Records
---
Amino acid sequence: QVQLVESGGGLVQAGGSLRLSCAASGRTFSSYAMAWFRQAPGKEREFVAAMRWSGSSTYYADSVKGRFTISTDNAKNTVYLQMNTRKPEDTAVYYCAADLLQYGSRWYLGIGYDYWGQGTQVTVSS
């Protein structure tokens, strides 16, 4: 069974950096896409970033492009979200997600993810 456990959130000041981690277990993830989503208070969950576990291409929402970086560490079975130049509007619960790649999958658009972590809260103060 796939398990995704996020960590690294907290209360931080605007402008600095923070790295979120997602420990993945229960599968060999080489055939999966991994993504980060976030949900701010009173708003719908939104796509943040995605990549294939074994690939190099990355995809980002316009709101985080140039500031956030998604990456994977095969040895640690972990997905990261490096958050630079944080803004108060980045305040949200951040979720890690996994999608088994299939023909026609639109994983790069943040669509069709089957497995989710419990989320980690990130609060950015101005």
---
Amino acid sequence: QVHLAESGGGLVQAGGSLSLSCSASGGTFSNYAVSWFRAAPGKEREFVAAISWSGALTSYADSVKGRFTLSRANARNTATLQMTTLKPEDAAVYYCAAGRIHAAPYLIQEVGHVDYWGRGTQVTVSS
């Protein structure tokens, strides 16, 4: 059983930056691909960014490409989502997710492929 805990959410002005961290415990972190999803009020959870178990592969939603960067440090059991040039439409609850994917595409981009979820962290962007 892997436990995921997000941190780093908060209130930021449009154009600003935030860094979200996902800390894992209870399992071998390097066995898992990690992703971030987000859910805005009244909307379904959507894919934001993904990173493979080794960190060699990443993928981003078109809406955040070029503004968000996902990285991981397996030795510290953490994954970090660096968000820049934030927009009001980025406001949502952000969830860290993990899953065992050791075959192509090595990335979690769909809710159905997630084995473990964090509880989420709120990101608010003021205009």
---
Amino acid sequence: QVQLVESGGGLVQAGDSLRLSCVDSGLSFSRHVMGWFRQAPGREREFVSAISRGGGTTDYADSVKGRFTISRDNAKNTVYLQMNSLKPEDTAVYYCAAKYGRYTETVPGPNEYEYNYWGQGTQVTVSS
């Protein structure tokens, strides 16, 4: 059974950094493509970033390119989202997501329906 637990959210000021973590408690983390999504109040959930099973392929939403970095540690069953130069518009609940990946270095499209498993979310609030 796949269980995803996010942590690392909080209240920060514009320009600050945060690192989100997501631990996959299942036995198949290395077979999972991992993604991060976010949902701001009154808005639909949107894609933020994804990383392939092997970690060699990543994808980012245009709004976070150059500021956010996704990484994974397969030995720790953990995926990270390093968020730098945070902006008030980054305020949202951030969700970790997983899906089984057939290939080692591919990522799916930026669509939440690609993913089968979801965490409960962690709140990130950026004040101006």
